[in-house]
Amino acid sequence: MCGRYATTRTSAELDDAFAAGLGDGVELPAPDWNVAPTKQAPLVVGRRRDDADEAAPPRRELHAATWGLVPSWAKDRSIGNRMINARSETVAEKPAFRSAFARRRAIVPADGYYEWYAGEGPKAPKQPFYITAAGDGDARDVLALAGLYEFWRPSRDEPWLLTFTILTTSAEGADGLLHDRAPLLVRPEVRDTWLAPIARPAGELLDLLVPATPGRLEAWPVSTQVNNVRHNGPELVEPLPAE
User: Which residues form the signal peptide (predicted)?
Assistant: First the structure.
């Protein structure tokens, strides 16, 4: 986890889910059922309110960001292709992530994400599965994936690029059959603490997060069309008919 996901909610729906208005001049990308690395997607960040002290809840904002974190010190943005996920076990120490983990934490809104099950045998084809919040149709909650963000630009004369990564942990239960890693989720009651742009002990921050476990999510097999990033539409998340 996590190499592809879906995010299709409007800015109004994301505001309802996360109490986050659009940042100044921000226009969110179109609904996307096949978000891949280097594509843009919605991101919820926390900003310190004007004239507020550190303890005040942050102002939540929606931004459009590129998936694949590019550290501020990177010479080339292509490093972001390898920085789509950050392991929670080492995120506080890794040079690429530790600065963002300290003060630039985010929420990545997702309808659901995809994993591929290889089956048995060395030549068994990989079957994609869609994993989403338990529920019914449009009533499913938006997943609040734990993320980090960073600003980068190649030179002083060029605009800033906003990039992000998704935090992962060891997969549990049935999720471990699909993939050995799973995203971390930010519970509603701790979102202000997670998003606040202030440094906190690493253990305290990680204690705010919970793994995306089978009790919170459900999964079903979907079409292999999702394998090609050029395919995009609600048909990608439809369950395959039972054989």
Answer: none
